């Protein structure tokens, strides 16, 4: 499954085989988006489905294989099911037949591990009526209300949708402003956009578009220039931007072009503060100066794209880090949300891209193992700023709001 390609809230549906998980998705969405069957194990790999929930917006439902799958292939399916938990914002745990035990506890432990809120839905209540003793037992174990449901008589679908709206974290769908605490109405923001081999033909990359939209949403003025036009623009006009935002790859050049009395940062750092554990990035980035020969560095990209010789994550940052430290460093590059090739404790540092293609929850859970193990983390933009000697300038627009 292509994970992390949508920045919409993700809702995962979990439970044992043949408990009606796929039927539940079909009832909620009002359409046959998932294959259903009486044969246990019909759903094999996790499958994504889009749906619009009023007041929340578009969401992604993830239909998963049964947690009780069997055999060698079943173990692989279970692993894929469990892997999705770190990528979701809300879980729906489907139970039935008055059964609640080892398999449900495995799932709940994973929900708790990744701080994922969840609802418990007792399906097939028309076939296996839920008894009061069972309801009390589940509530005592989980502290959760059990929602009784039947896909044959789905008269309380609206109630389930309302519970989803009540339970899903607001920050999963209510995106905070990128620059609203830094810029004011009518402020001018200068966006420095290089057009190089990595620039998509005829359009801007997503972080640039997101920043332009945010500037407009804050009733400020966005001026977009190629780096070759910045010097002439600042010399020949009386316009003084409050803030300049550059592509990280030309940080050094932008630093020389933009006067010191104008705040300067990068698109990647704006996204780092918006989505990532920014304090951990700030604390971890200076560890670059402490890297040693043969240290392993993990570079995390959150999208997949055609690789060129100018690729920022696969070529430029490894080259610049090696030159800056003078050390022989080993690099692993992992795209999207694929598995990390080594145990996280074998890495001296982890460096994450801006994360424009994934949710905040996915990014946090991606970095959580490193943070929990005390491994320094950074971000592409912060790393580039540090090795160019402009780290303090690059974070200055945000430091007063760190607390």
Give a written overview of the molecule.
The protein is of the alpha/beta class. The chain folds into three domains: 10-172, Rossmann fold (3-Layer(aba) Sandwich); 188-270, Rossmann fold (3-Layer(aba) Sandwich); 276-392, Rossmann fold (3-Layer(aba) Sandwich). The chain contains 14 helices and 14 strands. The chain has helices spanning 21-29, 71-83, 102-113, 132-142, 157-167, 206-217, 227-236, 251-257, 267-275, 278-284, 312-325, 360-372, 380-387, 391-399; strands at residues 10-15, 47-53, 57-63, 90-95, 118-122, 146-148, 188-192, 221-225, 243-246, 263-266, 296-300, 330-334, 349-352, 377-379. Strands 2-3-1-4-5-6 form a six-stranded mixed sheet, sandwiched between helices. A four-stranded parallel sheet has the order 8-7-9-10, sandwiched between helices. The longest helix has 14 residues, at 312-325. The protein is elongated, with a radius of gyration of 24 Å. It starts with 9 loop residues before the first strand and ends with a helix. The relative contact order is 0.12.
């Amino acid at each position: 499954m292509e994970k992390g390609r949508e920045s919409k809230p993700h809702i995962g549906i979990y439970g044992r085989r043949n408990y009606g998980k796929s039927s539940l998705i079909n009832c909620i969405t009002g359409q046959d988006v998932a294959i259903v069957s009486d044969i246990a194990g019909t759903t094999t790999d996790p499958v994504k489905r889009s749906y619009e929930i009023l007041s929340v917006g578009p969401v992604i439902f993830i239909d998963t294989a049964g947690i009780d799958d069997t055999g060698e292939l079943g173990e692989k399916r279970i692993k894929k099911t469990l892997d999705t938990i770190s990528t979701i914002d809300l879980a729906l745990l489907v139970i039935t037949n008055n059964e609640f035990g080892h398999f449900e506890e495995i799932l709940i432990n994973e929900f708790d591990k990744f701080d994922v809120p969840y609802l418990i839905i007792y399906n097939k209540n028309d076939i296996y009526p839920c008894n009061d003793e069972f309801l009390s037992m589940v509530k005592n174990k989980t502290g959760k209300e059990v929602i009784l449901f039947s896909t044959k008589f789905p008269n309380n679908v609206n109630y389930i949708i309302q519970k989803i709206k009540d339970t899903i974290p607001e920050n999963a769908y209510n995106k905070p402003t990128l620059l609203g605490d830094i810029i004011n109405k009518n402020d001018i923001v200068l966006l420095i956009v290089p057009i190089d081999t990595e620039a998509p033909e005829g359009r801007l990359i997503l972080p640039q578009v997101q920043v332009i939209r945010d500037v407009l949403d804050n009733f400020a003025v966005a001026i977009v220039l190629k780096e070759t036009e910045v010097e002439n623009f600042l010399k020949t006009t009386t316009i003084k931007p409050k803030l300049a935002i550059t592509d990280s790859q030309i940080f050094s050049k932008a630093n020389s072009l933009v006067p010191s009395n104008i705040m300067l940062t990068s698109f990647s750092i704006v996204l780092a503060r918006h989505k990532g554990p920014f304090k951990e990035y700030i604390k971890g980035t200076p560890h670059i100066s402490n890297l040693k020969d043969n240290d392993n560095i993990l570079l995390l990209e959150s999208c997949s794209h055609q690789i060129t010789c100018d690729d920022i994550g696969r070529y430029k940052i490894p080259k610049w880090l090696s030159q800056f430290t003078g050390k022989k460093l080993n690099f692993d590059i992992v795209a999207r949300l694929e598995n990390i090739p080594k145990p996280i404790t074998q890495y001296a540092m982890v460096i994450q891209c801006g994360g424009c293609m994934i949710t905040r929850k996915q990014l946090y859970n991606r970095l959580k193992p490193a943070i929990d193990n005390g491994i320094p983390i950074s971000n592409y933009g912060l790393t580039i700023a540090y090795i160019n000697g402009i780290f303090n300038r690059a974070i200055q627009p945000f430091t007063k709001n760190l607390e």
